[in-house]
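Lab notebook, design round three. We kept the backbone fixed and only want residue identities now. Task for the bench partner: fill in a sequence for the structure below.
Input structure tokens:
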């Protein structure tokens, strides 16, 4: 019986993706002290803003229609969705490049960025590559190429490290080294995916608007719900990036960026492991409410235990591991302790809203959460520590209330 379970395709594929995530996180964790001694906090700050902008565009570039690839039984219809999503992403990223050109001076001034036009014009390029990567990964999942998906994640991680190391150590490219590493690794990953899937990536056949309209209307839920939810979720998750960069500059942003990367390595390993098995178990369980409470409570305790050493001995641990110039990162971990624990714990059990088909409640919650976060940072705009501390308390409470909302909806169902 045990061998039969282990040999099941769901278990094997889940383990492949999990193993890949573990290796990616481990590689990132091992090389983090190397890069923290090559790049300065200011470099990481600009790199973090670049990721924020490009990731923000990538979230809505394809209008979330890449998620519809798994739905049609016909491969022909799925491939037409693929081509439609690819075209939409290209058009939106091109329009974003025009917007960046028009508001270039305002963006540079607001976010305290270097006055280099090439830096900002790499943003829509990376956004398109990221959107395309998500689309190709969904096609891989449809084809059942989970082993290849795991391999590509490793290839992308390793190529990012190699390019970033060479650019920073040998060519002293500062923040451009980190950015080139990100852009190059995404491009390399896409090339491997295209070659494996035998897709005509650069075959841009133009269809009539009526054709696109028919497909978009058929899967309109992704445009109506998934797109705004993705945009709100991305911004609310990364609101600290814009707040820190606008109000306190790249050094504060860089300290937060590396603090976040450091603690997300152990947290994401646990959360990805739980997320992989929670939803299948939850959907079949006869005691859903009990299981939900037990898993959430256990996760809160585990994540608290993982972060507690950073709260107590943060300066000593970060000074030893990352270098003395990074000890300021410990303050961000200490202030954001409550937020990190509850937001990560809830993210592991959030599929209950998909199971209940109550994503509209999450959308409403997301709007309230974002408005509350903006209000707190406006209220404490001249006091960074107080702003982050109260944001952490508000965020932790908000995620706990979201969990309670899930329990109420589950009981009513």
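Proposed sequence:
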């Amino acid at each position: 019986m045990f061998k039969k379970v282990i040999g099941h395709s769901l278990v094997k594929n889940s383990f492949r993706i999990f193993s890949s995530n573990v290796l990616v996180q481990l590689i990132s964790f091992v090389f983090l002290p190397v890069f923290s001694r090559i790049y300065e906090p200011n470099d990481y700050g600009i790199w973090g803003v670049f990721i924020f902008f490009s990731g923000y565009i990538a979230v809505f570039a394809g209008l979330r229609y890449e998620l519809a690839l798994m739905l049609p039984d016909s491969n022909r219809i799925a491939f037409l969705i693929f081509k439609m999503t690819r075209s939409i992403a290209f058009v939106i990223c091109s329009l974003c490049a025009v917007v960046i050109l028009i508001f270039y001076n305002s963006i540079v001034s607001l976010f305290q960025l270097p006055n280099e036009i090439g830096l900002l014009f790499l943003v829509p390029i990376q956004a398109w590559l990221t959107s395309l990567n998500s689309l190709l990964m969904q096609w891989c999942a449809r084809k059942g190429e989970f082993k290849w998906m795991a391999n590509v994640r490793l290839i992308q991680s390793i190529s990012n490290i190699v390019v970033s190391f060479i650019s920073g150590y040998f060519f002293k490219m500062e923040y451009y080294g980190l950015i080139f590493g990100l852009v190059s690794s995404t491009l390399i990953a896409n090339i491997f995916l295209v070659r494996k899937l035998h897709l005509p990536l650069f075959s841009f056949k133009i269809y009539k608007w009526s054709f696109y309209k028919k497909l978009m209307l058929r899967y309109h839920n992704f445009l109506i719900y998934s797109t705004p939810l993705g945009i709100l979720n991305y911004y609310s998750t990364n609101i600290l990036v814009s707040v820190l960069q606008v109000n306190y500059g790249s050094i504060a942003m860089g300290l937060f960026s590396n603090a976040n990367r450091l603690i997300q390595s152990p947290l994401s390993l646990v959360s990805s492991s739980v997320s992989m098995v929670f939803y299948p178990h939850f959907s079949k369980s006869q005691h859903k409410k009990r299981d939900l409470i037990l898993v959430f409570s256990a996760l809160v305790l585990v994540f608290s235990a993982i972060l507690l050493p950073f709260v107590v001995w943060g300066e000593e641990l970060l000074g030893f591991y990352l270098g003395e110039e990074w000890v300021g990162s410990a303050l961000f971990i200490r202030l954001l302790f409550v937020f990190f624990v509850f937001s990560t714990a809830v993210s592991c059990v959030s599929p209950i809203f998909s199971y209940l088909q109550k994503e509209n409640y999450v959308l409403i919650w997301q709007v309230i959460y974002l408005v509350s976060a903006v209000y707190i940072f406006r209220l404490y705009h001249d006091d960074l520590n107080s702003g982050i501390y109260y944001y952490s308390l508000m965020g932790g409470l908000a995620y706990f209330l979201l969990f309670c909302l899930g329990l109420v909806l589950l009981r009513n169902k």
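Keep this in mind before ordering anything: Residues 243 and 377 are 8 Å apart (CA to CA).
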